[in-house]
């Protein structure tokens, strides 16, 4: 019998990881990327003797696949995906593929906002408690690459809706859904319910032995839950109401109950992550830790000493009594809302970039009450001007991180915060949100 042929579309972190794992298990592997492949990934493929192509998709090298693993970034509307579907060739995600080859249990974290922070915090707590744990998914090293080289007992995986769309038999042992807000609607026919249905796939295939952790304060989650059968044991969390089994906030103290008489309490002032949204993130991570029966002291200690990820509400500098914060990872409106909500001073807001069909209405109240000026950074800022011309006196256009920082520096008064929180993707002026954040930080350091 001939070897099964696995074709991988996209040669980034996840694609190359999938190629490593497929090669290890004796498949005939071919990697195809419509763009250019980064040098480090090219040399990784060459080292493993895996054939690949870049800057094109050659139909006859792809449509002979037994199965295709695609990068989460490739939409279902791409011509090559349409051709695969027409030829009835299964298309799956790297996560789906990797799970077949590991006995490790998975903690899968999704949501429109806070998933990177919650994934990192959960991993930090587990690692400090001595759990043999890996970190992967949308963050860090690819899940498949780790499955091919390491043996972990648990993985904490950050899972995007795009990944979930290509996951079918995969099951999360512990699923966490933080929130559902309008994001990436361009991939979901501009319908929030389609995007919500995608997020709910995080609990597919779960049994009563599994765990589902979700935010009881999130309207869209509650709406979607009415339409969904949940088999897993549920642990909701809330900052608005008391919850018997799960987590809640009362008098500035978080209470986490997963078993009778095993409560964990912690004052929110002790949390490393401040701001309302981070109380939710900390509750979600805390429930995971309690479900795994980790010791309260260990959980408290880790939740108190965690350092947040780069480009997410990252303190850059304080210059002439003005604080500069890099929140370049805020690529949607909701993230920017969270950022504004967590800053305690008046703000000069740097925003803009590639607009994904954004609805800026949810920002209006915060902009009116907190934002002194908006500095737009992007090729086309028309929508931002239209959205906020009645809410803020000054809106300025700039076309580089350097220019944006210079303008913000002159607009900011003592005691203000200059906040880069774009609410948009970065591809018009930058390689990615990391590049945007790094250029912003470099510009601030030159002031």
From TrEMBL:
<dbReference type="InterPro" id="IPR013221">
    <property type="entry name" value="Mur_ligase_cen"/>
</dbReference>
<keyword id="KW-0547">Nucleotide-binding</keyword>
<keyword id="KW-0067">ATP-binding</keyword>
<dbReference type="InterPro" id="IPR004101">
    <property type="entry name" value="Mur_ligase_C"/>
</dbReference>
<dbReference type="GO" id="GO:0005524">
    <property type="term" value="F:ATP binding"/>
</dbReference>
<dbReference type="GO" id="GO:0008764">
    <property type="term" value="F:UDP-N-acetylmuramoylalanine-D-glutamate ligase activity"/>
</dbReference>
<keyword id="KW-0436">Ligase</keyword>
<dbReference type="GO" id="GO:0009252">
    <property type="term" value="P:peptidoglycan biosynthetic process"/>
</dbReference>
<comment type="similarity">
    <text>Belongs to the MurCDEF family.</text>
</comment>
<dbReference type="GO" id="GO:0071555">
    <property type="term" value="P:cell wall organization"/>
</dbReference>
<dbReference type="GO" id="GO:0005737">
    <property type="term" value="C:cytoplasm"/>
</dbReference>
<keyword id="KW-0131">Cell cycle</keyword>
<comment type="function">
    <text>Cell wall formation. Catalyzes the addition of glutamate to the nucleotide precursor UDP-N-acetylmuramoyl-L-alanine (UMA).</text>
</comment>
<keyword id="KW-0573">Peptidoglycan synthesis</keyword>
<feature type="domain" description="Mur ligase C-terminal">
    <location>
        <begin position="311"/>
        <end position="424"/>
    </location>
</feature>
<keyword id="KW-0133">Cell shape</keyword>
<comment type="pathway">
    <text>Cell wall biogenesis; peptidoglycan biosynthesis.</text>
</comment>
<dbReference type="GO" id="GO:0008360">
    <property type="term" value="P:regulation of cell shape"/>
</dbReference>
<dbReference type="InterPro" id="IPR036615">
    <property type="entry name" value="Mur_ligase_C_dom_sf"/>
</dbReference>
<keyword id="KW-0961">Cell wall biogenesis/degradation</keyword>
<dbReference type="Pfam" id="PF02875">
    <property type="entry name" value="Mur_ligase_C"/>
</dbReference>
<feature type="binding site">
    <location>
        <begin position="111"/>
        <end position="117"/>
    </location>
    <ligand>
        <name>ATP</name>
    </ligand>
</feature>
<keyword id="KW-0963">Cytoplasm</keyword>
<keyword id="KW-0132">Cell division</keyword>
<dbReference type="GO" id="GO:0051301">
    <property type="term" value="P:cell division"/>
</dbReference>
<feature type="domain" description="Mur ligase central">
    <location>
        <begin position="109"/>
        <end position="288"/>
    </location>
</feature>
<dbReference type="InterPro" id="IPR005762">
    <property type="entry name" value="MurD"/>
</dbReference>
<dbReference type="Pfam" id="PF08245">
    <property type="entry name" value="Mur_ligase_M"/>
</dbReference>
<dbReference type="InterPro" id="IPR036565">
    <property type="entry name" value="Mur-like_cat_sf"/>
</dbReference>
<protein>
    <recommendedName>
        <fullName>UDP-N-acetylmuramoylalanine--D-glutamate ligase</fullName>
        <ecNumber>6.3.2.9</ecNumber>
    </recommendedName>
</protein>
<dbReference type="Pfam" id="PF21377">
    <property type="entry name" value="MurD_N"/>
</dbReference>
């Amino acid at each position: 019998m001939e070897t099964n042929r696995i074709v991988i579309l996209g040669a980034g972190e996840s694609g190359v990881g999938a190629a490593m794992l497929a090669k290890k298990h004796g498949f005939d592997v071919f990697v195809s990327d419509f763009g250019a492949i980064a040098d480090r990934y090219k040399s990784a493929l060459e080292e493993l003797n895996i054939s690949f192509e870049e800057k094109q998709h050659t139909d006859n090298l792809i449509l002979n696949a037994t199965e295709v693993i695609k990068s989460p970034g490739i939409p279902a509307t791409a011509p090559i995906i349409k051709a695969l579907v027409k030829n009835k060739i299964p298309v799956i995600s790297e996560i789906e593929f990797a799970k077949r080859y590991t006995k490790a249990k998975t903690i899968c974290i999704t949501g429109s906002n806070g998933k990177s922070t919650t994934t990192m915090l959960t991993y930090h707590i587990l690692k400090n408690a001595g759990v043999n744990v890996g970190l992967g998914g949308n963050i860090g090293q690819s899940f498949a690459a780790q499955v091919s080289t390491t043996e972990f007992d648990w993985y904490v995986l950050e899972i995007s809706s795009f990944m979930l769309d290509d996951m079918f038999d995969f099951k999360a042992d512990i699923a966490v859904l933080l929130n559902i807000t309008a994001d990436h609607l361009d991939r979901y026919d501009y319908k929030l319910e389609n995007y919500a249905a995608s997020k709910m796939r995080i609990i597919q295939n779960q049994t009563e032995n599994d765990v589902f952790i979700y935010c009881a304060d999130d309207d869209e989650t509650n709406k979607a839950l009415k339409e969904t059968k949940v088999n897993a044991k549920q642990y909701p969390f809330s900052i608005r109401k008391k919850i018997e089994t799960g987590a809640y906030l009362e008098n500035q103290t978080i209470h986490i109950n997963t078993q009778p008489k095993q409560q964990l309490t912690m004052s929110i002032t002790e949390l490393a992550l401040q701001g309302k949204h981070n109380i939710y993130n900390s509750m979600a991570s805390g429930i995971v830790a309690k479900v795994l029966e980790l010791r309260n002291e260990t959980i408290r200690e880790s939740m108190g000493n965690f350092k947040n990820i780069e480009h997410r509400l990252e303190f850059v500098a304080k210059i002439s009594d003005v604080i500069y914060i890099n929140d370049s990872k805020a690529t949607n409106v909701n993230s920017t809302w969270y950022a504004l909500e967590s800053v305690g001073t008046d703000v000069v807001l740097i925003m803009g970039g590639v607009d994904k069909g954004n609805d800026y209405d949810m920002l209006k109240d915060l902009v009116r009450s907190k934002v002194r000026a908006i500095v737009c950074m992007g090729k086309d800022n028309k929508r931002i001007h239209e959205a906020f011309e009645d809410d803020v006196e000054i809106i300025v256009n700039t076309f580089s991180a350097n220019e944006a920082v210079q303008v913000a520096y002159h607009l900011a008064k003592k005691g203000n915060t200059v906040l880069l929180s774009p609410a948009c993707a970065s591809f018009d002026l930058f390689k990615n949100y990391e590049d945007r954040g790094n250029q912003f930080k470099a510009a601030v350091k030159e002031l």
